[in-house]
Amino acid sequence: MNNSVENRFFGIVCGALLVFVAPLFVLFLFLSSERADKEIRDHISVLLVANAQALAKPLWDLDEESVTQISATVVSQGAIVKVEVRDQSGQLDVSQSTIPRSFDGKLVQVSRAIIYNTIDGPKNLGSISVYYPALGLFSGLKQEEVVFISIFIFAVLTVFGTALIGNRFFVIQPLMRLTAAIEATRQLGSRHHVDWQSNDEMGRLAHSFNEMQTKLESEEKELKFAHRRATDIYNLTPAMLFSLDEEDRITAVSDYWLLATGYNRAAVIGRNFADLVTANTRDKFVKRRRAESGMAVTVKFVCLDGRTMDVLIMESEAGADAHDRLSLSVMTDVTELKASEDRNHRQAITDHLTGLLNRQGFEAVLDSKIAAADASGQELACLFVDLDRFKWINDNMGHAAGDKALIELVERLKTHLAPSDEAARLGGDEFAILLPAKDAERRAKAMCEQIASIFETPFAPDMHLSASIGISIYPHHATTAAELLQKSDMAMYAKKRDGKNGAQLFDNVMLDRARSRAEIEANIEAGLIDNWFEAFLQPIVNLNGRSIAGFEALMRLNHPQKGLMPPAEIISVAEETGKIVRVGNVVMDKAIANLAKISRISGMQDTYLAINFSPLQFEPALPARLAAIVGRHGIRPERIVVEITEAVLMHDNPQIRMIVTELRRFGCRIALDDFGTGYSSLSYLNRFPVDIIKIDQSFTRAINDGDDDVRQKSRMLIEGITTLSHKMNCTVIAEGIETEEECRTLHQMGLDYGQGYLFHRPQHAAKLIEELMTPQSAVARAS
Asked: Which InterPro entries does the UniProt record give (predicted)?
């Protein structure tokens, strides 16, 4: 009760008395004392004046008796308790005192000089000093003042007592009743009211408290009802509901949760939920719940009977901090859905035809295989397998036969794979195999021999296959999955270029070739954008007279820093990337424009232009595009010669046949280029509308070979080709003539035209036009 309201009120009142009343009372006493002291001083001052005059004559006369009598008279006056009279010479010193021996107070001294008027004037004979006791605060009080102070103290005490009694009755008593009601509510749980009626603040407080109690009682009833309903909903909802505390202990579970899991409520309440999750998914659940406030996680839940369910747990939480977390979680059985997802995932990463992994699945497995190789200290070989001539099988025997061959291939391959190996079909006829081993290169070479043995037996009558295999080793050739697959792919393409049907281990030279190829690709794209491509022209001359009959357009890429670049690599890369069509269109347009400029030179109006076309350029729009260009420049169609190779004709593509026929119908002539280097067949001359045969430069060099056998056979072939071509009304042109002897021999053998360094080198059109404008130039028309 030391800190009760009543004690505090008592302290406040006492403090007010000390702060306000006590200083006033002290001030009053001080003023009374000052007043009394002043009255005494005034009285003594008058008394000293009178007695100083009375003592002058006795002191002049040194009448000690008279001085003693006067001193005795003074000391008997009022408050004076001591008198001292001394003359100036020290002969007379009279002292009178009425101070009791027990007095130990302080005396106040008042002195005055004794002056005697003589014939010579006033003289200071000595002094008189009187003493009186110093007055205290209460010493100067008069009787009426004492009465007044007594009345004042009584009044203050009366007010103080009345305030305490009023506070006790009007404040403390209702507060005690309010406290009792609150305490009863806390201890008993019932809403007690305060029995107090008044119109003051305490009454209003009691009234407000009673209304609050009534409202809280009503809300408690509603809350209990709501809780009862929530509990019913929690238990009757057909969903596995449960709640966890901040330490992941189960605090509540629904009836449906118990029904689905088989547990008893008493057995699971208080258990850690992670204990009911399988060990391989427990960490996943714990980490996810620690990291996320409202988590969604899929784990494997162990039922009472040992069954394992795949469950999706979704949790919502409320709470200010980790120590005040409230959660409501719903657990959904997704076992069937998970199985379906697994099936879909397997289908997504599996090739539907062979059952092997597809590219997506292989890339995922490749990462895990590299990690496993690192963990076990092994190497990893990646084999990139591409079937040779498989496109021919699909095109000529049908896709069903091709699919059957792939299935058979995989069945044979599986017999050579170890359990730790992985195989995948990356697409079409491309496969990849992963071989983990201590010595991966040796294992890879052994596997390549086994793969080669697979193809020894035909997959069907007349269905013989082979494979080109690229090998790369982790970590010797690559440090990442993507790099490992890329380098095995590069090794496979290197084997393709070297003749197919075999295996090739990756070498850094291949990487240099790849960089070079990428650089060429970039140059091609930049050349198309910045107009670096030029159409150089090489004249074709009549072997009988050396006059110019026409020109062959040759593609050149004039790099601003590197100058003219070798055309063979550019054409090869452009054909592989499909950009040869754009390059060919640029060169064709520039070449025909150059022919139009040359046609303005006297005697050049009938010269022709031979343009080489890649198989990829034979698009349906080619005839219309060519017609538009020659029409724009005013060139007659018969002055355009379309040069095609045997590779274009040997596929016997109906679309190419149709386009060639369309160009021939338009008026262009057709030349068969590099005749004799491929699968040469004179049937082409009968099946296609060929006008010109161009004999490859390899035959031209061989006609004067030092070996008599080679020289005789080459001459016989050229003579035979020339004779048959002439009988079929075809003009024959020899390529690569570099010596007068070659030119003379070919002319004697009956060839019509020739081209080569002996006559003219390929050169820029502007320079060629400058040469043609000289008087020595002559023109002959190609027949």
From this structure: Biofilm_reg_signaling, EAL_dom, EAL_sf, GGDEF_dom, HAMP_dom, Nucleotide_cyclase, PAS, PAS-like_dom_sf
